[in-house]
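Example protein was shown:

_____
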Amino acid sequence: MRKRERSESRAPEVHEDEYVEPEVIFVERQFPIVLRWPLIWGMVFILVGMVPWSIATANVYDWQPLTVNWMLVVAVALLAYWAYHFAGWYFTVLILTDQDITYIKQRGFFHRKVSSLTLNNIQSVNHVIPGLQAALFKFGDIEIETLSGSGHMHLKNYYKPSRLQEEILDAMENYSSTVEA
């Protein structure tokens, strides 16, 4: 019975050539303020779409039923426009693991671009607060430069970019200490 307890309590051996699953440190989305322009343009679209309806109802024209259909078309088009931009925001993420940084940029429903940098290839991590609005709402951009210069990443509109910069620098420090050990 004692032999069984000892064999169960032993950790499995890890060989150098085995794949080790990276540990996710954080997953971060862009600040929701990136949706402000689609919201503003959607409101303009509503106003322009209501012009035929308001003319028809004010003057009691015969084409009033047609304007109701027009308003339905405008509503469906507006919802599709907002869904397109929301999907782009929702699926655009920054993933930091203990081995690399992966940036997934989604545009609309079907266009996705994935960029990845290993932590040992990063030369510098900087953040920028681009203006009054960004300072008030505490969002900004993160710029990551590589040693080779080929993998520059510019990440726009992230909440508290100084905190993200510190997290990335800490992950780089931990990665370099584990590689050396």
Summary: Helices lie at 2-9, 36-59, 64-90, 132-137, 161-180. The domain at 24-31+94-180 is CATH 2.30.29.30 (PH-domain like). Strands lie at 24-29, 93-97, 100-107, 111-118, 122-128, 139-146, 153-159. The radius of gyration is 26 Å.
